[in-house]
Please model this.
Amino acid sequence: MTNDESEHSLRRSHRGPGEAAIRWLLLGCALVSVLTTIGIVVMLVVQAAGFFSQVSLLEFVAGAEWTPLFQPQHFGVLPLVGGTLLTAGIAILVALPLGLASAIYLSEYARDTVRKTVKPLLEILAGVPTVVYGYFALTFVTPLLRNIFTELIVFNALSAGLVMGIMIIPLVSSLSEDAMVAVPRSLRNAAYGLGATRFEVATRVVIPAAVSGIVAACILALSRAAGETMIVAIAAGATPKLTLNPLESIQTMTAYIVQISLGETPHGTVEYYTIFAVGLVLFVMTLLMNLFGQWFVRRYREKY
Model:
């Protein structure tokens, strides 16, 4: 018997019923998330089938009007997709520079005591209830913006996107900072030895080396913004309109789901099934973003 075989036999001899029970318990915990995801997908697909049995897929994905609750009914989901992408785009334009700048400061400039104080304070933003953000956008940010943009209406995509961007700053900053800290110190020291300044080291050495983690953080934050509900439901309005003007009222996919889910729509009608059709579109969008993030990380990840 070889040494490896004897070691494996000895390891198996020490395994008791408790070890086997722990193994199966951990396996069960791992399967919970997998089975939950499968259940969500099956539920969405089965319920959305009731919608597509009455509405053509072409009209749904290519139509530019969304009026399922009014006559004549139109079921083009593009206005909802456009509203979702508009607010999420504004949010990432706010969160990316602020979050990345915060990450650069925490990883390259801040002392350990400052980092241990500032990072938890910054992450508090992620713990604020989104309904608070929604009313903050409606009652504080919108009046401020109306002093600048006189044509801005009460419910608009701009204020919702700006506040949503503030909400996802901790996602970008915290995950980006973790990716930057993981860059070996030897790369920094080599750059300093060549006469580079701290800012040049941060922007030309650390960020390129940590780009896969930074992109993954941005995609995760973008997915979070696309799935946000309360901020857009409160501050962005309920007007499904295909527009690129952030000063107008729009409606996102999540806000529409909230509107229909209030219980006034009869079960089994085409209006009811629109909830699952829209939810399926949102699920596919976030899935594609996450798949792209995983591909990007595998493609450009630096191994040290």
